Amino acid sequence: MTEFIKLPAAELAGLVADGTASARDITQAHLDRITSTDERLNAFVTVDAEGALATADAVDARRAAGEQLPALAGVPIAVKDIVVTNGIETTAASKILRGWIPPYDATIVTKLRAAGLVPLGKTNLDEFAMGSSTENSAFGPSHNPWDLARTPGGSSGGSSAAVAAYQAPLAIGTDTGGSIRQPASLTGIVGHKPTYGGVSRSGLVAYASSLDQAGPFGRTVLDTALLHEVIAGHDPADSTSLDAPVPAVADAARVGANGDLTGMTIGVVSNLSGEGYEPGVVSVIAATVAQLEQMGAKVVECACPHFDYALAAYYLIAPSECSSNLARFDAMRYGLRVGDDRQASLEAVMAGTRDAGFGAEVKRRIIIGTYALSAGYYDAYYGQAQKVRTLISRDFATAFSGCDVLVSPTSPIVAFELGPRAEDPMAMYAVDLCTLPASLAGVPAISVPCGLSGGLPVGLQIMAPVLADDRCYRVAAAVEASLNSPVLATAPQL
Amino acid sequence: MSTITRDEVAHLAHLARLAVTDDELDTFAVQLDVILSSVASIADVAANDILPTTHAVPLTNVLRADEPGPSLNRDTVLLAAPAAEGGRFRVPRILDTEE
Fold this sequence. Notes:
The complex is a heterodimer. By secondary structure, chain A is an alpha/beta fold.
């Protein structure tokens, strides 16, 4: 049964559909893998073995009844623990939510269930998705299957570790400033941040609402695209959801796999290189760009001068929105409450609970956001950051007038060791340099593994205009096809 | 020059209803100063005549049909409450006893 865990989701679904394998056996194989590896990885916060097997049995029953199954029916999936799940504890990796059993499903979970996917459990993250390494989790960091002393990235590091370690063929992540793309890059898998509004935010625990976007992880570009098509689409429950057709990403992945990029113009972002970028990463990216040219693409250099201010803009906008969103954790309606002795005032209970329940990074961001939004500083900080956001969008518009997609490294560095960076907030923030511009402009971006530096995976980021997610997948599939063997195939055995 | 003082951090923490400890204040004052100095470069961007972006993909007047639908079950919701009494959330006192 162990062979199931190495198969792509598309093949697993085929085995279920034609009756070669049962969803139950496939699910059990992945649960066994979690049991044998998660003590070392800490990818999961909650494993729902009973619920997963019941869901798998329901899929097997549908097939036995002669029903035509949806594309990924019977395929196990890991869900980041910031996505609410009816009846299954949802913590956002925070002490303030520990023990919370949501009374409803996020829209994307409803879609997963309707499509017959089998949620295995909830994966670890930086508390409220604030971080780049999972070290801000209240449940301890996740570990990178390539090297257990290193981070699997963040904030969706539990999801990336689970997929890279064959605990699940697919996972859901969320990306506010790079939290899908960076973990995908650091673990040698594929991760896509859809166009803002392309996937419903209803039922995500909100961090920075104008930036938050859920998206898919997979080990292959096609698997990632198939999952994208399951979760994407307009949702009346999310007023920022786009009422537009879902881009044909699975078809684009199939087209890209033929390795022909004739007619495409690819822009290399010159601002996303230089100081702070590891030489090993730079050379793998350069070799990949040369490969894109060999596949027929025209490659040009693009200057996007305002990308240099993305880090500053992001670390004002995101904390500002977080300081507002996290006001809901008031110790009254759900979650933790401390110090309620029937004497203490509401305000004292609220402040004491929030101090006990939030970790250091969350508090830092709440305080910075409160500062940036306060009278006297609003125009200089938050207002100015929102204007810079406009300038970043204009840089993209200018670049896309001459290019179909833009490329850069996903991360300036390979997976780093757990520990040292966690004490230095600015050093941690700098890890997000390459992913922030697409987040601020709301454009889609994918990370695809493209090589190794010092034995650790490197990801290429491919950015496209709004609702042109299909271009990301097409180029990513071409990169994947150009490799002699998948990057992940060279990962050490766990 | 530091951009933010320890007293300012204490005031902001109060505004955000965070009962931070003295140790946390000491750490945060230093860290927030570094962070705010690092993002101060944002002021250098000439953007006076630029309109701010509040949402990446502009949408206006998003409406939905005004149709009643099922609500969450009251008892299920109260199960997740830190304290409930008589079918309601029980909250700490909001008035001083003398008042």
